[in-house]
Amino acid sequence: MKSARFGASVLAIALAGVLGGAGLAGFALAQGKPESLLPPGFDDPAPAPTPRASPAPAPRPGQAPAAVPGVSPAGAAPLPGAPVDPATLPALPAITRDDLASLPSLEELEKMSTEELDQLLGLKPKSDIPAGAQRALTRVGVLAVEEGGLPPVALANQSDKLVRAVLSGTRGPMVSRWGHILMRRALASRLAAPLGMDPVEFAALRVGLLNRMGEFAAARAVVQDIDSAKWSPALTQEALNAYLGTGDITGACPAVRLQGSAREDGEWQMWQAICNAYAGEAALAASQLDRALGRGVAPRIDVLLARRFAGAAGRGQRGVQIEWKGVEELNPWRFGLASAVSEPLPEGLLDNALKAQGGAYYARSGALLPMLPAAQRAPFAGRAAREGIMSADAMVDLYSEVHADPAAKGDPQTHAATLREAYLAADPAARIAAIQRLWGEGAKLGGGDGYGARVLTAYAAARIPASEAHADVAGELIAAMLAAGLDRNAGRWANVVEEGSLAWALIALSRADGGAVGQGAVESFIGDDDSPAGRKSAFLVAGLAGLGRLSEGDAGALAGDLDIDLARQTRWSSAISRAAEVGNPTLVVLLAGLGMQGTSWSQMTPLHLYHITAALTRVGLAAEARMIAAEAVARG
């Protein structure tokens, strides 16, 4: 393509030839004579006095003669009113037939948006942000160290190949709720890019992983920390995924309009039309979506949903009838747009999508979509809580909304009433009974191993007084408390529970002031363990050893009894141990996330848990290590 200046010249010549003199004359006649708004006499300047002629001074020896009025010296710009020599004018750019053939037609010009015309004429700036206000890329993220973020330069001297491999290789989700929370914290921190890696690529890798984890809000926040003019194609795509996952369709419009015709795929064209509609160009948006529908650039249902959303931008828009007939699959675009315009999905379409591979996307996104009523988000919330996306506070707030909604019915309303009883029943035994009923509904509260119900009841469990009368349920109550990190509340049961019990094991792992644990107490726990393949016992030994609460001899003896080789090394264990040795918490967290991938704790090995807890403890993240170890035993 020619330069913007040459393109503007060619387009101006073409438009002048198309419009012709008649069009210009019509414009002049329509304009009329300008009229002054000042009183008579105010706009008539007084005549300037006639200057007296004075003889020109004689030139001094060696001095050039003075310029004669009305005559321009050679090589200088002509004076006003002076005759112009055509030979001195610069040559016009050469215009070939190919140049003229590449010009848009009048019909195409009429259909162009303001942004596209600016781009064609070379008037569109590379950035809509003044140079002095543009943000640097030396630190990208939203969590500073003072806000809980990790050290900003921890990866600055690391190999870009290692960091790229770790971020790309972590496909998500993670077996550990607390591992997920820690990983989100690292990815959202204000970090400098590794040595040799472009900061935008580093941001795209982080945002992509956040999207795969279902952390669409955090991904959007990181994206918004970078000026949209600096987005790469990869970062743009991940940004669109984040905006779609949060239901913030118009949030992507600044970047979409700035990039213009950078892409030609169907999703991009629909997004362009939506953004044009919300920029006040409703007619253009309608024509773009009509063309998209006629040319089949995207499935019909996707274009219809885009037309419905774009039509909400202005008044007097035509109605759009959404036709779901023949639609057998759900995708993120359909789910996000249908939720945004309150279009109900056909019966069974969402249920089938949730059961299919990749169906977890809809639960992770739907749990936090602000346009959905609380009763509709509640079935999704259990999974989001189980995985670490939603906190215990957020779960209680959600079910409080359900309880206050007179239109709520079915399981969400029943669960909300039961949760209220778990908080307000006068008798602790009645509160425990209500909590246990919610645990029994784990399949409806997020499915999986029912851990979403533990998150929901964490604060209600913390209100149960530590008493020997309730010692038989202390283990489950403490597991619920630790799902929200309430280790101090759990520690109140230390003098109540029996040594070697589940409650004892969870307290031994989670207490901040916990000391060394004897081999005999652990053997007592192992003797009563009925978990599959003794998984809880293996996790207890690995967690205590990683936290440094078992002596080296006791750890070796217990691991040997359970047929666990904690001394075995792999490439991953060597990498995370080396990162801990040099005191790099960010790299340790990223490697820990890589080692915690999976959908069930049955996919986690005691060796991985040992190295993760040991490395986190060594780099100052002992609190997170304690929660991960306790969660492993609770869910093992």
List keywords for this structure.
636 residues; 5 domains
Give me the secondary-structure topology.
Layout: H1 4-31, H2 97-101, H3 106-111, H4 114-121, H5 160-169, H6 177-187, H7 199-212, H8 216-223, H9 233-245, H10 253-259, H11 266-278, H12 282-295, H13 300-311, H14 332-340, H15 349-355, H16 360-366, H17 374-387, H18 392-404, H19 411-424, H20 428-440, H21 451-456, H22 458-462, H23 474-483, H24 487-491, H25 502-510, H26 519-528, H27 535-547, H28 552-561, H29 571-581, H30 585-595, H31 606-618, H32 622-635
Helix pairs in contact: 5-30, 6-30, 6-32, 7-8, 7-9, 8-9, 10-11, 11-12, 11-13, 12-13, 13-14, 15-16, 16-17, 17-18, 18-19, 19-20, 23-25, 23-32, 25-32, 27-28, 27-31, 27-32, 29-30, 29-31, 30-31, 31-32
Strand content is under 5%
Gyration radius, rounded: 35 Å
Low-confidence stretches: 1-34
Count of DSSP strands: 0
The average pLDDT is 86
Number of helical regions = 32
* Portion in helices: 40-55%
The N- to C-terminal Cα distance equals 62 Å
The biggest beta sheet is recorded as: none
Describe the global form. globular
Q: Which structural category do the helix and sheet elements fall into?
A: mainly alpha
Account of the protein in words:
The chain is an all-alpha fold and 636 residues long. It contains 32 helices and no strands. It has helices at 4-31, 97-101, 106-111, 114-121, 160-169, 177-187, 199-212, 216-223, 233-245, 253-259, 266-278, 282-295, 300-311, 332-340, 349-355, 360-366, 374-387, 392-404, 411-424, 428-440, 451-456, 458-462, 474-483, 487-491, 502-510, 519-528, 535-547, 552-561, 571-581, 585-595, 606-618, 622-635. α25 (502-510) runs antiparallel to α32. It is globular, with a radius of gyration of 35 Å. The two termini are 62 Å apart. The model is unreliable at 1-34 (pLDDT under 50).
